[in-house]
Design a protein that fits this description.
Layout lengths: L1 H9 L22 E5 L11 H20 L3 E8 L4 H10 L3 H18 L6 E4 L3 H16 L3 E11 L4 E2 L5 E4 L8 E2 L16 E5 L7 E10 L5 H14 L4 H13 L4 E2 L1 E2 L16 E2 L1 H4 L3 H9 L4 H4 L5
Parallel strand pairs: 1-2, 2-3
Antiparallel strand pairs: 4-5, 4-9, 6-7, 6-8, 9-10, 11-12
Helix pairs in contact: 3-4
Length: 313
């Protein structure tokens, strides 16, 4: 309080001159370098106040604070554009998935400009960099033995002649009996669901009744990481600032034992899987979308690795 009162008494002339970063903003030796990302808003809707408050506003506030502290700050965001929800919206509006993404990316960007959200760069995930980086990470996982292949039972709509990805299926939740549960999660009780567990499943496209058939998919072999993850978590909890809720959720996954997680989907709209036998599939959006933070930074600057692979700064 005394320091604040002294600074106030000295007046604005005594304040440090505002830092003017170079363009593009890159890490600077000897400065505090801060990279800020806010959750990538999904592209199939018009953002409202709740989205802005829960997504970009808190990061924007922090970015402004960092700049006032004269920290070298980069704030990036962009629309998350792949996945089933985009295909579903495209069907609803009679457009292609790419047209839907172009339409809603522009709407998002205009709204955030109107609210004066101070992004250094607002991008999107449907870019060549996204494909390059996601496929590179996939190839590294494959080379290190962290992927496995398995046959899974999946719902197929014979009328539409396609396997139905999670959000192309609706039915009754097997846990709480909610009648509009999706094929990946119940929005009422929050439990994760395997689509074949749904009662009274329906294809969202034609309202037909799908049948269960086998199909091949790729999985992250998460159990291989469990023993390495535990000591990392303990160190991170001791030195970091995790909320009680974040600790509890993470612990619940560890207590139950990590399970292999499917990273491919029978869709057309997504990052292609670069592996023989899987070229007709794309990456599951929750494998692909977090990589969007990297690819959006890469679209901002070709020196993106200085932000993402530079722990010394």
């Amino acid at each position: 309080i005394t320091a604040a009162a002294d600074a106030w008494a000295r007046g604005a002339a005594a304040l440090p001159k505002p830092w003017q970063p170079q363009k593009p903003v890159l890490p600077v030796e000897g400065m505090r370098n801060v990279l800020i990302t806010s959750a990538l808003p999904y592209v199939n809707n018009v953002p409202h106040l709740g989205n802005i408050i829960g997504c970009v506003l808190s990061a924007d506030t922090f970015a402004r604070y960092c700049r006032l502290r004269n920290w070298n700050t980069l704030y990036v965001c962009g629309t998350d554009e792949y996945g089933t929800a985009t295909e579903t919206k495209a069907v609803e509006e009679g457009l292609t998935p790419q047209e839907i993404c172009n339409k809603y990316n522009a709407i998002h960007a205009d709204i955030y400009r109107w609210f004066d959200i101070s992004f250094d760069y607002f991008g999107r995930t449907t870019t060549p960099y996204q494909t390059t980086i996601a496929q590179d990470i996939f190839q590294r996982l494959l080379a290190r033995g962290f992927l496995l292949q398995d046959t899974v039972e999946q719902l197929r709509c014979e009328d539409c002649q396609r396997f139905l990805a999670d959000r192309f299926v609706e039915g009754t939740c097997p846990f709480c009996s909610y009648e509009e549960a999706r094929g990946d999660q119940c929005d009422k009780c929050g439990k994760l669901i395997n689509a074949v567990e749904l009662k009274n499943p329906q294809c969202k496209l034609c309202r037909g009744v799908p049948v269960v058939k086998p199909t091949q998919h790729l999985f992250l072999d998460l159990p291989k990481l469990e023993e390495r993850l535990k000591p990392w978590l303990e160190q991170s909890w001791a030195t970091g600032d995790w909320t009680a809720n974040a600790r509890y959720i993470t612990c619940s996954w560890i207590w139950d034992g990590l399970k292999p997680r499917c990273i491919t989907r029978d869709l057309k709209w997504g990052t292609p899987v670069p592996l023989d036998g899987f070229c007709d599939k794309v990456f599951y959006v929750w494998f692909d979308a977090p990589i969007g933070y990297l690819s959006i930074t890469a679209n901002y600057t070709d020196q993106w690795e200085r932000w993402w692979k530079n722990p010394q700064q």
